[in-house]
């Protein structure tokens, strides 16, 4: 089976040195996301800053045709979205990120 992994390097405001996190998966190719921000519950969610990340090697779905359409839609380096009546993401600022080697796309912003 294919092996996929993702890593994210961030800098905290109080520190100049980056921190690194890593996740491993040995599952078949499908829905994969480096970072996902989702709003649910019928309310507005606000004030997200997504910056200074390195997202690399996220082996998401690359086939946008059925039956994998939904996996493709939700596969990317960074994905944002809202689901449900009256659920919204407001004041979302995505900046200074490096996204590479991702199946499905680099950045997907959905309503």
Describe it.
- The chain is mainly beta and 111 residues long.
- The protein has one domain.
- It is 5% helix and 53% strand.
- The protein contains one helix and nine strands, in the order βββββαββββ.
- The strands form four sheets. Strands 3-6-9 form a three-stranded parallel beta sheet, with no helix packed on it.
- Residues 1-27 have low confidence and may be disordered.
Number of domains: 1
Report the average pLDDT across residues: 78
Outline the low-pLDDT stretches.
1-27
Structure class: mainly beta
Indicate the overall shape: flat
**Main β sheet profile:** 3 strands, parallel
Distance between the termini: 33 Å
Q: Quick one: how many beta strands?
A: 9
Radius of gyration from the CA trace? 15 Å
Note the total helix count: 1
DSSP helix fraction: under 10%
> Strand-and-helix sequence, N→C?
EEEEEHEEEE
Percentage of residues in strands: over 45%
* Largest sheet: spatial strand order: 3-6-9
């Amino acid at each position: 089976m294919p092996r996929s992994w993702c890593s994210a390097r961030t800098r905290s405001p109080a520190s100049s040195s980056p921190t690194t996190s890593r996740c491993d998966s040995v599952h078949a190719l499908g829905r994969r996301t480096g970072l996902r921000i989702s709003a649910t519950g019928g309310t507005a969610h606000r004030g997200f800053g997504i910056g200074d990340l390195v997202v690399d090697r996220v082996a998401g779905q690359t086939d946008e045709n059925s039956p994998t359409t939904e996996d493709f839609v939700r596969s990317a380096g960074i994905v944002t979205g809202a689901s449900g009546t009256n659920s919204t993401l407001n004041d979302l600022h995505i900046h200074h990120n490096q996204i590479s080697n991702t199946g499905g796309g680099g950045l997907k912003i959905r309503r």
